[in-house]
Amino acid sequence: MRIYWTYDELLERVTETADDVLTLGNTVDGSPIVVAQCGGEKDPAIFITAGSHATEHAGVSAAVELIDQLETDHKVYVVPTRDPVGLNGYAYALSLGLGDEPEFDSFEEVEEILRNEGEVLFEEDDMVLSLIGDYGYASSRPNKDRKCPQNFFYHRLQRLHQEQPEILQPLLGRRLYMTPGQSRVEGTGDFGRAYTIIISLEGEILHINRFHDTTWSPVEPRVTRQLLAEINPGISFDIHESQLMGDHYWLSARNQPDPESEEWEQKAARATIQAIADSGAVLAEDDEAPSQWFTRSEKAVFWLDATQRGEGLNLMDFCSREYGMAFGTEMGMYGTFEGRVKLGMLTVQTAVSVFEERWR
What we know:
- By secondary structure, this protein is α/β, with parallel strands linked by helices.
- The protein folds into two domains: 7-83 and 213-358, Zn peptidases (Aminopeptidase, 3-Layer(aba) Sandwich); 88-207, GMP Synthetase, Chain A, domain 3, CATH 3.30.300.
- Helices cover 36% and strands 24% of the residues.
- The strands form two sheets. The protein has a nine-stranded mixed β-sheet with strand order 1-2-4-3-11-15-12-14-13, sandwiched between helices.
- A hairpin with a 5-residue loop joins strand 1 (20-26) and strand 2.
- The longest helix is centred in the last third of the chain and has 22 residues, at 337-358.
């Protein structure tokens, strides 16, 4: 299974395998956000995406593999990554502010760059937060007691906004790029990707997998929303990974607005988790629910109620409300890269087989 260390590599592969590749829009560095068209001619369409969190690269590779390996008569639209800048890595993200791509091999060297080249907004213990050019940058060193550096940093930013809002004032309306700090995660590493956070003009701290139900949104969710309105998919997938679950797998499902669709969502969820279990994957335990906003049906099948979360809809929340069946995958990031890619693909292939039953 291929790891794409640059966006150009990914675009080359997508162009080789897809029937057609269209540009939906361009992100902040000018990189095209693309959709690959494949599959057959039958409606309703199938929508697949990944990479809103660039640190979760096995999902991106799975989406690319599915372009020519998903066998279906239905139309298929694949947005393989929603964060081209983050995919290119932290050094590349830094080049947007610096003008040139820097070289570094350690967190100490990154921190020196943030101190010397930018305006330091906050520094404490193992974190430096700086403004360089039009972008915010953070170096947050990994800690053996933290399962997920991104979640830790995300919540620290939220506390700063609540307790010392003046610190984040220069970042309002800007993007903030963070070091992954995932040295043990194949396909990511400490600096191989950049984790992208967007701070709204009101100071709301979100990431690219939000803004799908808001009037204002950055380009990535905006063009995805426009695509969905055009293709009107009958089933949607967002292939994610979780650092919190070790090497465990869980499936994120969404309740449907009508009884018939709910029945098919339930059927697809049961078939998918059975296929994952049969593959030998380790399933998340009952007490590993990712948050209080989820309820469990079958083992490792968690149903999200986005109305309780208090922040913008993620993409599968939006798709389930507007278009139909919707699933998110969460492969444990400490599994092998090849294994994680295969689980992402198996999720989509199994649920699509149930979806096809519905539309025979």
